[in-house]
Amino acid sequence: MTLEIGYTMMCEQAPPRQLVSDVVRAEAAGFDFSVISDHYSPWLESQGHSPYAWSVLGAAAQATEQIPLMTYVTCPTVRYHPVVVAQKAATVQELSEGRFTLGLGAGENLNEHVVGRGWPSVSIRHEMLEEATEIIARLLAGERVSFHGRHFTADAARLFDPPATPVPIGIAVSGPRACDLAGRRADLMIAVEPDASLGDLFDAAGGAGKPRVGQLPVCYAADRRRAVELAHDQFRWFAGGWKVNADLPGPEAFAAASRFVRPDDVEASIACGPDVERHREAVRAFAEAGFTHLALVQIGHAQEGFLTWAEKELLPALKGL
Fold it and tell me: Phi, psi (5° rounding) for residue 68?
């Protein structure tokens, strides 16, 4: 199976109108799908943005024609109640005429603490995610849902504009418990590392044959050193790994946690510059780990140069992976 290559609307890097114009350009450039981050805050102040992803999705659904859209990912447990997430997903599916996939995850403190409900332990977050996924799936299937769980209650909830096309649900994974939940409950697996063992766990829990969607940060610039500097300025937080990053509360904490990350450290983990082969090898790791879809994140505020380069050089080089 050929790896499909997607484009990431990175809300932390751009204002809403730019995000919409960028995905229109990505569709024209030949990207196979697009995902959008759903954050309340950027990781670092230098990123500088964080518009409401669901409004951007509605606009993108109207501005584009064919490109599939997906949340990467939405947390349906603290900042949002799952019945509201179901309503949002159904609406975007209708606006996009069946092009939407709902990606769910257990969330990050960065985005969820803002509503003042505290930040649960990881085991509680997975319990909450499982309950939320059940409520959302039932509502999207057209049920009238009354639910009384340990963490959530739904009282005779019903979608009055249910989606004509079913909404596929993906679940983000980083370890055995999430893989088990995804294998049992999800239509696809989501991950940010090219770790084949995650796919094996997903398959064992019931996910065999289902899509696996990854995400890969890259930093194109005509000058390699400039690309490294940009990646270090805006994406050095990435070095902490998800077990650390999920618990940090804000941009100041991410700045402190990443203060000793050097530009050379960033270059070692993120493909930077104009060398197509360097980017191709980073993408190949996901293909070899069994991923079916991979969304690229171009680091930085300016996207047009990357999209032009991707259309002319990168996407042709990735065909057949």
Answer: -65, 145
Of 4, 9, 10, nearest to 24 by C-alpha is 9
Spell out the domain ranges in the chain: 4-318
Distance CA 167, CA 215 (A): 20
Active site residues: 39, 108
Chunked into runs of 10 residues, the chain (321 residues) has average pLDDT values of 94 98 98 98 97 98 98 98 98 98 97 96 97 98 98 98 97 96 98 97 98 98 97 92 89 95 96 98 98 98 96 95 87
Q: Are 198 and 191 in contact (CB under 8 A)?
A: yes
Question: How far is 297 from 96, CA to CA, in rounded Å?
Answer: 22
**Amino acid letter, 169:** I
What would the CATH number be for the domain defined by 4-318? Answer: 3.20.20.30
